[in-house]
Fold this protein.
Amino acid sequence: MKLPFLSLLVAMSKNRVIGKNNQLPWHLPEDLKHFKALTMGHPIIMGRKTYESIGKVLPGRTNIIVTRQKNYVIPSAIVVDSIQSAFAAGLEENSAKNEAFVIGGEEIFHQALTFSQRIYLTEIQKTFDGDTFFPALNSQEWREAERTIHFSEGIEQLEYHLVILDRKTPSST
Ligand SMILES: NC(=O)c1ccc[n+]([C@@H]2O[C@H](COP(=O)([O-])OP(=O)(O)OC[C@H]3O[C@@H](n4cnc5c(N)ncnc54)[C@H](OP(=O)(O)O)[C@@H]3O)[C@@H](O)[C@H]2O)c1
């Protein structure tokens, strides 16, 4: 299978929660801006539940939605019935920057992890209650390339870290 340069993009809490009741459990507008800046102009691959949680096609990006449902049609999005077809669509629709983003949720992250080269991880330094989680990572496979520390505006002042993890290559291990 020929793959685009695949990156996972995720925000998770200290206890690896990514969602609750098909929503994000936190209010972190700064992370939504980060998400937009990274993905603009690139293909984004998501599960049907994540698409329905967002509630609309995100503009300026090729939205690729994965579902097993026949006749699931979303105008101005590409709907595919397997993760492999999502990667193929991501490759075909790829921008000059050659990067497609897998944006969740849990089911899709699990399936895409082994095919991905990079993870953009927002680590929220607080535990949250939730029902969907980001998979545990094997430290033998991933190298932390970057970490910056931030605090959200507003009353809560959540501490969050923007982390980039790159897949280790034989020469970087
Ligand atoms: N914090 C974050 O960064 C972040 C990012 C994204 C999402 N989330 C959260 O994650 C939660 C959603 O995650 P989730 O795991 O429940 O759902 P999901 O991964 O978004 O979507 C699951 C759906 O994708 C389809 N699917 C999965 N694998 C497939 C395959 N191999 N072939 C065809 N279709 C496939 C199925 O759709 P059908 O049932 O239609 O067949 C399945 O029900 C929400 O709470 C959301 O807010 C968080």
In short: The radius of gyration is 16 Å. The chain has a mean pLDDT of 94. Strands lie at 6-12, 17-19, 44-47, 63-66, 78-80, 100-102, 118-124, 132-133, 142-151, 159-167. Residues 10-11, 18-19, 22-24, 46-50, 53, 66-69, 81-83, 103-108, 111, 132 surround NAP (CB under 6 Å).
